[in-house]
Structure formats: C-alpha cells, structure tokens
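Case study 2.
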Amino acid sequence: MSRRLGARLVVPSVLVGLILLVAAFPGLFAGLFGHGDPRVCDLRFSRQGPTAGHPFGFDIQGCDLYANVIHGARSSVLIGLLVTLGCVVIAMVLGVVSAYYQGWVDMLIGRLMDVIFGFPALVGMIVILSTIQRRDALVVSSVLILFGWPGATRLMRASALSCVNLDYVRAAVSLGAGPLRVMRRHVLPNSLAPLLAVTSLNVGGVITAESALTFLGVGLKTPAISWGVQLNVAQDAFLNHPHLLLFPALSLSLTVLAFVLLGDAVRDRLDPKSR
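Prediction:
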C-alpha cells in the first residue's frame, strides 16, 4: 500500500513541478519552437493552423499560439497559487480562533461563513468584477478569495475542534501558556493536515474558476496573457479554426488534472486509514 501511494505521488508531483517551472520561466520553453515571443504578431498568418516551427499554429492576431499558451501558464498558475494561499491563511486564523474560543466568537465567524455560502458565488464574482475596470491577477485573486475562504475555514475549524480539548492542550493551558501560544504551538500544527490535504485540489479548482470568469469576459483582460483570455478570444472562431480553442483547453485540462491527482495522492498519504 505504501509503495502504491508513493508511485501515485511521484507522477503528479513531476507534472506539477514541470508546470510550475513553465509558469516561472515561460521564455525558456516558449523559445523551443519558433521565435518564442507571444507579442510578435503578423496578420498575414491570422488563424493559420500548425506549421513547421509553430506547432500550435497562430491566433486571430497572427501571434504564435504555442508561445501564448506557454506564457499563459504564468497568469493562470499564479492566480491559482495566490487564491489558495490566501484561503489557507484565512482558514488557519479564523478556523483555529473559532474552535479555540467557541461561544460568541464561533457564532460570529459561523454566521459570516453562512452569509458567503448562501450567496451565489458565480453571480457575486461576476457582479463585482463587472464593476471593476482594472482586472489584473491581484484583483481577480482577491475576488476569488472573498468567495473561497469559507469552505477551507469550516474544514480547519472542524479539525481544530478535535484538538482543543485534548490532554496536551489542557496541560499547556494549566502551565500558564497564553491563548496565542496554545493556538500557534499546539492546536494549529496538530490540526493542519486535513487542510493541507485539500490544498492542491483547490489550486486546480481556482485555475478552472479563473478561466471560466475570463471566458465569460469578466476576468483578466487583454493585454494579459492567460488560457482564459485565449479561450474567450477563440470562441467565435472555434468551428472553422478549432486549434485556437483546442491547445489552450488541453493545457488547462492537463494542469488541473495534475493538481487534482497530486491533491488526491497527498490526501491519501496524510490519511492514517490509507496506510
């Protein structure tokens, strides 16, 4: 069983590592074919299919589609990581505080989560982003965090609740340790595993959400380069020029699948029952 879990962890880890490398250094990979510059365009090649030196063909503006897909990984992965990190930090703070103090603090945080849960997330994100003119990666990430933190916080609270009444926590309190020290040194480290197990899964979901919002026209805007922008631009020409939609969609699907597989493997690794 342990060897099987190890094998399941290696393959998605390699894929995710490669995707992160592409997102961090897109120029190294974009130059493998053609000129590698996503902003060098020639309308004479508009919508042409794959050719020698340009394996993905050209987009509507005559730009090399392969270079755009490679550079598009940076925005999509960056937003996925920023939103996941933001949600994890909020969940750690509010989840542990809610579980430790309980009472009115727990009720206040719980009602706030209920308000966010009760509001249609997609509608809310569309309404907020539609009113903002400057929609860069930081703005889109902030809106996704606004609607994404309650789920992670509820998971963190449930995990922390199972720790706050254990003997080692009570012993720390009886020895005079303050609430902040108890939460930071004892409750948080011992209740973090379930949240970490779903973190990688959340990255894939966030990347999909960002691409969907951009596809709908309320996410990132040109001249930003992302897979969502490419899907949005390609939707009107898909029937006659399928390569415009095919390659960004495949890249998006492969990235999300890699993070989902990694999340499943990490979750099984951290689950005592699976061992």
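DSSP finds eleven helices and no strands in the chain.
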